[in-house]
Amino acid sequence: MVKFSKELEAQLIPEWKEAFVNYWQLKKQIKKIKLSQKSKQPHQVLDHEFGLSIFYPIRSLARNISNKLFHSDSKTEIIQVRSKSMEDGDEEVYQTELVQLFSEEDEVTVFFESLDGELNKVNQFYKNKESEFLERGEILNKQLGILLDLKRVLNEHRRKPNAGALSLSRSSSPARSSLCSESSANEISTDSQIDEIIAALEKKGINLISSGARKKPKKGKPKMAVRMEVPATTPTRTITAVTSMLWEDLVKNPKKEGAGDFISRKKIQCAEKMIRGAFVELYRGLVKRSHFISSDKVVRLMDEVESIFTKHFANNDRKKAMKFLRPQQHKESHMVTFFVGLLTGCFVSLFSVYAILAHLAGIFKPNSERSYVEIVYPVFSVFTLLSLHLFTYGCNLFMWKATRINYNFIFEFQPSTALKYRDAFLICTTFMTSVVAAMVIHLLLRASGFSPNHVDVIPGILLVIFIFVLVCPFDIFYRPTRYCFIRIIRNILCSPFYKVLMVDFFMADQLTSQIPLLRHMESTTCYFLAGSFKTHGYETCKSGRLYRELAYVISFLPYYWRAMQCARRWFDENDPNHLANMGKYVSAMVAAGARLTYSRQESHLWFFIVLITSVVATVYQLYWDFVKDWGLLNSKSKNLWLRDDLILKNKSIYYMSIVLNVVLRVAWVETVMGFRFNMIESRMLDFLLASLEVIRRGHWNFYRLENEHLNNVGKFRAVKAVPLPFRETDSDG
């Protein structure tokens, strides 16, 4: 049986945390009341020394009858709750009056005063949220009306011959003027079309902002000036927005009316998609906050949103509309748990077989041939490090669920398709079982005397199979998760042109811990594309100049992507903390380049450069880990050098995590210590350090999301605010 305090803690929303009832404080006051009553209660002394009289039941029955007959109307209520209006008349508060038995100094009075305060706080919060939702609904209705008018005008315009995109103002730039001045007849026709469009929209009370320069509004009722804005969430829109901004600032006179806005079908479709998403988020916000259901206004708003969405976005198909508004969650199956256990047993068995075969073949002995380590090791290391990362992510999901951290909400995952921890473990065990099975088959074929040219193709086949599964278009093997992963990787690769979401920079942080995996992918790609598997030679790639230079690029890329994300967030939010965060990744890029150069040309100069850059980058990273990402090392916290709010009850875990993170952060010291190892030992040590970095990242993930859940450090909204395409501006242009 879960305690109510645990359930309440699980329902806490970081943004609304202050509005929740302070259950723990009220519970303490109730305990004080119990203690005070025990101390004031007199010791009861029996009037009869030798027990109760045989007439006691008769006296008790007579007393009850007399109370019901003669004192039935004298019963008064001890507690009375009254509502009062404040002086301004807008706010109504509740106050509890204790009629008798309690004095003003009693703990009971203090408790009910606190209870009144909590009740009024919650009631006022719900009133404010109700007004916000109603206001949002009115805005969306206006946006939908503008959209429908624009679609109607655009459809009428397209029915005419030689109709293209609509320009809602005359262009003032020389280039556009030359294009539009081919004939006076075309100009007159274009002007008449513009006048028809503006007149049709003004009948609805809408005055597009670009048309304000053409003529002043007539006296009377002012028109609503509207500008159509499409958010720069994709590379094309970002480049267009930046180009337009530079054109306005550098080429054109900002005081004059700018180039005309073009209303095309593509813009209308984008605006329709934005408004549809806004209606979906509004409805889900109403449903999730089910406490609002007691409000008749909110119930009517929900019904109105359902009817509007069904009519305009689902072609009057209610079933289709409900798929958007109320998506069904898939039930968990015990078959997933069964297959996780089955595949785990297969993995352990196959790994034991591989270890025995590798020992018998003498592959990892110092005097063994280098071809296996140089050729097969990088390929299988890619799969192994990726499987380890999947395993740590599964552990993260398990711990987030166990500690009631709302990771689906923070990452904006759909609950119906989001990956559960059992699913993550199933993918991980499937991955590793396949990899170890391929390694066993590879060893068996080598021992059987097959040609190395054919045997070394096995890792490539495994790689092709996994790539095919990743991009498979069929609805199998967790297609929503696979496509979500591809979309996030696309956003990272195209940084800073995509708007940065929490899940985007969280995944980019994971890539900064997988630089060895990217280096192994470089070796694998070169090995297969250069045809080295046919000649069974591993020197082809490592001796090339391009290969060595690409090593720098690959070592820089994850930090570059993350730095560009910080730059984009600074551009969007104008928060200098993002520039400081970008400096952390720039310092990491410098340190990574210095260590890579030192590994190729050891000298005292490069040793000191590596030492200085690595120390600076490590201190920078540790500070950001503990203070910014984890929210720890707060000297004013009630928990010594931690933070005020902690999910884990055992504080020593946080102190041990700080020490562990420091130790794993300074693993680069091994690269400058000058230890001498043979080829096999060097590869195994590199793999161990790469695995420790993956484990450190999984360890970092838990505390990063814990801090986000408790303190909302990323400033993400509890109700997702979808940008709207039409913005009201000054009607004078």
TrEMBL record:
Residues 165-185 have a biased composition (Low complexity). It is a multi-pass membrane protein. Keywords: Membrane, Receptor, Transmembrane, Transmembrane helix. GO terms for biological process: cellular response to phosphate starvation. Residues 162-185 are annotated as: Disordered. Residues 542-733 form the EXS domain. The keyword Membrane applies. Pfam families: EXS, SPX. This is XENOTROPIC AND POLYTROPIC RETROVIRUS RECEPTOR 1-RELATED. It comes from Salix koriyanagi. The lineage of its organism: Eukaryota, Viridiplantae, Streptophyta, Embryophyta, Tracheophyta.
